[in-house]
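Exercise 7 asks you to align residues with tokens for two separate proteins.
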Amino acid sequence: MSQATTADVSAVIAQATADRKVSSAESLGVPREIADLVAAAGFQATTGTITFAGQYATGTYAVQYNDQNGGFSSEWPQWAFELAKDALLGNRRVWVASNGEPFGANLVFVMIFP
């Protein structure tokens, strides 16, 4: 994904979540309005868990992400790996958006649930 596309998507998500009050019914998942924006932008977004997060001797980062469709193991960019590691160590679920299946090269964002 190009840097410009990633920046555009990030700007849309940031705008949709800025100063937004969430009803108690939405507080345990992804608010429908935001999920709809991500889908309308043409991205796949799912919630799931991180099974492992680590680093190879070569310096690249490995993550296994599991959602309702199965598990996806790949090299993730450092920014996404750091979030995956935090989620794993905190035993938290994540919301992952990607341009295609949720492999590292396709990632658009990673959000950690409380």
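Second protein for Exercise 7:
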Amino acid sequence: MADSNEINQKIITATGGIYRSWTIGVTSDPDQTKKKARNPKNWNLYEADSAANAKAIVDSFTEQKMVAGPSDDGAATVYLHLNRR
């Protein structure tokens, strides 16, 4: 199950905790979302235990200045990817 600590550790390891370098959202179709995002580097998926939990995870990171990506209502899969430079 996805949780903020697991995602936060990924961000710290990959970019030293620079939240604005990442995009986060919720998707019901990870393959299509990845394609729409132009196959970004460092694509990660996390399964939340509910859509509400997934939304709460996304909200907690966007409050810390992470970029909010497109999100599907009712989806429980959180996606995270490194922004293009």
